[in-house]
Amino acid sequence: MKSLHSFIFFFVLFSFFETKSLEIKVLASVDNQAITNYDLFVEVKTQELIDGRTINSSQHRLILQQMIDEAIKENEIKRNNIKSNNKDVNVKMNEILSQFSDKNKLDNQIKSNIKSKIENSIKWNNLILKKFRNKIEINTNEIDQIIRSKDLDGQEKEKVAILEKSKKLQVYSKTYFNEVKKKYLVKIY
Length: 189
What we know:
Blueprint: H1 2-16, E1 26-30, E2 33-36, H2 37-51, H3 60-79, H4 86-97, H5 108-132, H6 140-149, H7 157-180, E3 186-188
Antiparallel strand pairs: 1-2, 1-3
Helix pairs in contact: 2-5, 3-5, 4-5, 5-7, 6-7
């Protein structure tokens, strides 16, 4: 009899509360990898915390497209068996986490999302370097010309070289990504 009263009590108690559960829906897929509304929710919350601003619902489509692009890159990284250095990942992760005064806002899901993004970014750059290492080399004459044209001193040569390599790396990264994404079956629901 006591258990019946307990059951009725809990039934009545919970019937007064409106439960809002999140129905998981697939929003897009890259080959067989699903991107759900929950994944989008976590991504939006992550970007809001990192950017320090609220993201409105009209921007969700753009964020979903970014997630699709990341999934394509992640699949290509796996296909090419590219690894990352855990030390580099942890250094970058700590750098990002140090920007937050209130670490309590960062739940484990958001921290995991940030770490995954860092790992994939490092791996993607490693893939591009592996594929285009010979094409990313900078001509020292080009560097000298840039230094003279911008009236920089000789100590800036290394910084200019790194900047120019980064620019070439970005160009090859975009070009390669545009080639690669044609290989993947992307569906948006």
